[in-house]
Design brief:
The structure holds two protein chains of two kinds. Chain A is mostly helical. Chain A has helices at 2-35, 40-62, 67-89, 94-101, 107-118, 122-161. The radius of gyration of chain A is 20 Å and the shape is globular. Chain B has ten helices and three strands; from the N terminus they run H-H-E-E-E-H-H-H-H-H-H-H-H. In chain B, helix 5 runs antiparallel to helix 6 (140-160). Classes of the chains: A mainly alpha, B mainly alpha.
């Protein structure tokens, strides 16, 4: 009996910490892709990026990895996802990256850092702001790292082909 | 195609790409590729300089005078579908080298491509507010209110477009609206806390395209363009903070 309840608790934890954020971020990314005027054909694949970002982040945090590295790895994952899809579907990288990055934006932290400032708690404000900018930096660095690798790969490939200035260039 | 026509199509394509939210390196790269595709026999030299606010294209043939066209991009609207179409158009131009009229016809077609209707966009704002309120830990009531506020934000920002506000003013007004409605809904007793509602509804204003373009421009080495977009994102964030902060301190007396 105890085993069963223990298992139930674990399942509930997984649902609240991983499944629900993934569903929310899928819906949010899907709605955001309307704002960016992404065609219906690519809306699902763009919103899947939202799931990927939340899944990686929640999974890593459940396994006790620090917040910053969680955001870094998650941003790297969505960046790789959108670079690969861009080459496969021959669309700009932005189309998938923009939508997938939005659920990672630390909106809650920004809000609470502002609230601490209003309340006159300067120490709290500093802590929250540094954390917010740290997360923003981690996301940027994650995208930087993966995109740089892809740019290097592209340069190597182009040197190998070396044709007219207008060969079949994809993605970028 | 002569140089003047070449200059016209490239600067038009570049202008539209920047306007619809493409990265700067993509714009510069497409223009260079198109011109070099046409100019292989005439030996045309090309210089392109673009930032999110302006575009300068100069081409020079052998022994001729250089000719330049400058475009000022004063307003931008995100439309990734059209960016994608312009991108494949420029790739097509490189491959098939069509004449001037054909290219202009394609550009006009892309300009007229259908967008999502106003109702759909309002609904999408509502969905974004709803889901982000849940995402940041709000209850279902908070989420519904955040969704309604999200839709109202879109309506108000469309109304504001008529007076052409600065991005700062626009985000201040929208966040004042969000914060005051959230606090009012707490006062009349629909929910107990208003923070999740404000966070959820303000997530609709996150400038996603600005943030990603900023990072990608920095990676590509276009630091001026990266700084431009980064400043824009920071100003929007500052506007949201100012609006929400003043409203909260007025209405809750903190």
């Amino acid at each position: 009996m105890e085993q069963v309840t223990g298992r139930m608790i674990i399942i509930m934890e997984i649902i609240t910490n991983i499944v629900m954020p993934c569903i929310y971020s899928f819906a949010a990314s899907f709605a955001f892709s309307v704002q960016f005027n992404i065609r219906k054909k690519f809306m699902i694949s763009a919103a899947m990026g939202g799931i990927l970002s939340q899944f990686v982040l929640a999974f890593l945090q459940l396994n006790g990895i620090s917040e910053m590295s969680g955001y870094f790895i998650s941003a790297a994952a969505i960046s790789a996802y959108s670079e690969v899809l861009a080459r496969r579907l021959k669309v700009p990288v932005n189309m998938h990256l923009v939508v997938a990055v939005i659920p990672l934006v630390p909106g809650g932290k920004m809000y609470y850092s502002m609230v601490t400032l209003i309340n006159g708690d300067i120490n709290g404000f500093l802590i929250q702001t540094v954390e917010t900018f740290g997360i923003a930096g981690a996301i940027a660095m994650g995208i930087f790292a993966v995109s740089s690798v892809f740019i290097i790969m592209k340069t190597i490939k182009q040197k190998r082909i070396k044709k007219l200035p207008c060969n079949k260039n994809t993605g970028q | 195609m002569n140089e003047n026509e070449l200059l016209e199509i490239t600067s038009e394509i570049g202008y539209l790409m920047i306007k619809y939210g493409a990265e700067i390196f993509r714009v510069e790269d497409s223009i260079k590729r198109i011109i070099s595709a046409y100019g292989t026999d005439k030996n045309i030299a090309v210089e392109v300089f673009a930032i999110p606010a302006s575009l300068i294209v100069t081409i020079q043939t052998d022994g001729g005078f250089p000719i330049t066209q400058t475009k000022r991009i004063s307003s931008r609207c995100t439309n990734l579908d059209r960016v994608d179409k312009l991108n494949s158009l420029s790739r097509n131009i490189c491959r098939t080298k069509p004449d001037f009229e054909t290219v202009m016809k394609h550009i006009e077609e892309i300009k007229k491509r259908s967008e999502y209707g106003f109702k759909t966009i309002v609904i999408s704002y509502a969905v974004v507010g709803f889901t982000f309120a849940l995402f940041f830990g709000g209850g279902i009531k908070d989420a519904v209110i955040a969704g309604i506020i999200g839709a109202l934000i879109k309506l108000v920002s469309t109304l504001l477009e008529k007076i052409k506000p600065s991005i700062f003013l626009e985000s201040v007004v929208c966040s004042i609206l969000a914060a005051s409605l959230a606090i009012i809904s707490m006062r009349i007793g629909i929910t107990e806390r208003f923070d999740k509602i404000i966070i959820g509804s303000l997530m609709t204003l996150v400038p996603g395209i600005t943030i990603t373009n900023c990072m990608r421009d920095f990676i590509a080495g276009d630091f001026l363009a990266g700084l431009y977009t980064m400043t824009e994102a920071l100003i929007i964030a500052a506007g949201m903070a100012v609006g929400a902060a003043t409203t909260i301190s007025f209405l809750t007396g903190a």
